[in-house]
Design goal:
Layout (H helix, E strand, L loop, with lengths): L24 H7 L9 H29 L2 H4 L2 H15 L3 E2 L4 E2 L3 H19 L19 H21 L4 H6 L7 H15 L5 H11 L5 H23 L5 H24 L6 E7 L5 E7 L7 E7 L8 E4 L8 H6 L2 E7 L5 H11 L4 E12 L3 H6 L2 E7 L3 H14 L9 E8 L2 H15 L9 E7 L3 H11 L18 E4 L4 E3 L5 H12 L4 E6 L2 H21 L4 E6 L5
Parallel strand pairs: 9-10, 9-14, 10-11, 11-13, 14-15
Antiparallel strand pairs: 1-2, 3-4, 3-8, 4-7, 5-6, 5-8, 12-13
Length: 569
């Protein structure tokens, strides 16, 4: 039985055989012009788009392989350090639009977006004509040339839309760029596919829901409808293409990418974790929700999982950073399960429900959980090789810092790590979190206590006491600030000095702190790791980017920055 919505017989590719239907040879030759020939339109317009997307992927892949395999003499040479500083500047520098409270993508990403926009506009508007000069006696064809070329450009985008959307994907595998950092490309490629391809109106809902997902308005609802609309769009787009030339090849490529990604996620979740894991839910002293899972799985510092609680919201999975590390020694690994801990700050929706459950059942209630991960994380090669580290966190990001402290303490047992130092700066907003963080930091620093710690921890309470401190600073006539480079922190604002941490009642001046650390490091590599609100990320990224320009000019200095985003889609 045939399929009435597809041409018969159904094939993989339609014929490219051309038969001139106009009056003169000159008209036939004009119709077969390079940018006008309908039977070669997929080669003229789709393949250049594929090449454009593959070019940066290949360049980043080569750079990634060089960072993994290049000998130290090469990686530390002056030209390489200057080139690395410039590339890092492009990766770190962002812009803030204060009136909108909006932060741009990094300069390098904006540059790629500008190049892509120029390419799409040129390939759409430069070739002529936009429409066939048909008359009553002359007919070049029914499909306008501008629709043909933008349609093929849209088809070429499909595999890359899916490749950049998947949590487990080939781009991350070959470039080392984590999936959450590819989401901006997923959105932009989708916009190009929609606006240049002149797709059906219902596809606008897909992009509207993307914009909603990028905020916090009705996130879960928009996410679900996004998937449904995308599925409907793909089905009808597949039928619309009707196996013309190589159109279905792009759907096959998309299917392969989607299938391998889904299979890898399934295997990654099934083998180490299975579907019978249980999470223990409790409330910490400062009101954070603690999810604890005993598992044989392993992960690295800074990674996150997508957590699905089957008894609460089985249809949604939420990303949470891990606040613990697996056991270190082989004896420990085989003797007991690893404690996978998530520390979650309740806000609204799902996290508020978790907090309500934890308060209602103080006996540590358990729920069945499905874990999808781990994903992302810091570059452990950089973390272990760099001898001077600065770790900054704010809000719920303080839980993200704890495994980094533990990982640093573990590397201190190596005799070659005797000179390694870590400076930890934590910003909290209330006294309860202040005390809780202090206790957690003390516990994290107690790992391998026989080895002397070289960790300096500073906790800044930026809550209600901040205004008092700032007013006291104004009344004192501008006393000399502490040499720590923390704006508004006077000599008297250092409230507590314990063996494990210092406590301040003020807001840290993060750009000054980073600048001073960079100046003190000199030619020694410096690693900066950040997890916090967008304003915190922006301040540090901007200063590190400025330091990269200095390093690019002088050829000295080596600053690595890792930014862990609070939220993304």
């Amino acid at each position: 039985m045939g399929t009435p919505w597809l041409a018969q017989p159904v094939k993989l590719h339609s014929s490219r055989k051309y038969k001139c239907s106009v009056d003169t040879l000159e008209q036939c030759a004009w119709q077969r012009g390079y940018w006008r020939f309908w039977y070669e339109a997929d080669h003229r317009f789709a393949l250049p788009i594929v090449a454009f997307f593959l070019t940066p992927i290949l360049l980043f892949m080569m750079g990634y392989l060089l960072t993994l395999m290049a000998p130290r003499t090469v990686s530390q040479s002056r030209p390489v350090k200057q080139l690395r500083a410039l590339s890092r500047f492009c990766s770190y520098r962002t812009f803030r639009f204060g009136s909108l409270d909006w932060y741009s993508a990094p300069v390098g990403v904006l540059g790629l977006g500008a190049i892509g926009t120029t390419l799409f506009f040129c390939m759409t508007l430069a070739p002529r004509p936009f429409y066939w000069p048909n008359t009553r006696t002359l007919n070049y064809g029914g499909s306008p040339p501008i629709a043909t070329r933008t349609g093929w450009m849209s088809i070429a985008c499909i595999p890359f839309v899916f490749a950049t959307a998947a949590k487990s994907n080939w781009i991350t595998l070959v470039t080392g760029v984590s999936h959450e950092r590819l989401q901006v490309f997923h959105r932009w490629i989708s916009y190009a596919m929609h606006h240049f391809g002149i797709q059906p109106p219902h596809n606008s809902h897909v992009h509207l829901s993307e914009l909603i997902q990028n905020s916090t308005i009705a996130y879960e609802t928009s996410k679900a409808t996004h998937y449904i609309a995308a599925l409907v769009f793909m089905v009808f787009f597949f039928l619309h293409c009707n196996f013309r030339m190589s159109s279905w090849d792009y759907f096959i490529a998309t299917g392969i990418l989607f299938a391998t990604s889904s299979l890898h996620r399934l295997v990654q979740a099934l083998i180490p974790y299975g579907f019978n894991q249980r999470a223990t839910i409790s409330l910490t002293d400062n009101g954070f929700v603690s999810l604890e899972v005993l598992t044989k799985g392993e992960w690295d510092a800074g990674q996150h999982y997508f957590v699905r609680l089957l008894e609460l919201q089985p249809w949604t999975a939420h990303p949470f950073s891990v606040s613990s590390l697996p056991k270190k020694s082989e004896t420990e690994q085989h003797s007991a399960h690893n404690r996978l801990v998530f520390l979650i700050q309740p806000r609204g929706g799902f996290t508020a429900q978790l907090a309500k459950i934890a308060r209602a059942d103080p006996t540590r209630r358990t729920m069945r959980v499905i874990l999808d991960g781990p994903y992302g994380g810091i570059n452990m090669k950089q973390f272990t090789e760099i001898k001077r580290l600065v770790v900054v966190a704010g809000g719920s990001g303080v839980g993200w810092v704890l495994p980094l402290i533990t990982a640093f303490q573990r590397r201190r047992t190596d005799p070659d790590e005797e000179q390694a130092t870590m400076r930890v700066i934590l910003a909290v907003r209330d006294v309860q979190t202040e005390h809780w963080v202090g206790d957690r930091v003390s516990t994290a620093q107690s790992v391998d206590a026989a080895c002397p710690s070289r960790i300096a921890v500073e906790i800044y309470n930026t809550g209600s006491c901040q205004d008092t401190v700032e007013r006291a600073a104004q009344d004192s006539g501008g006393e000399k600030e502490r040499d720590e480079g923390s704006k508004g922190i006077q000599l008297g604002s250092l409230l507590t000095v314990s063996p494990d941490y210092e406590l301040f009642k003020a807001r840290p001046d993060l750009p000054s702190i980073v600048a001073r650390e960079a100046a003190s490091a000199g030619s020694t590599p410096l690693g900066v790791f950040v997890c916090g609100p967008a304003s915190m990320q922006y301040d540090i990224s901007k200063e590190v980017a400025r330091q990269q320009l200095v390093a690019a000019k002088t050829g000295s200095g080596d600053i690595y920055l890792h930014v862990e985003h609070f939220q993304w889609t």
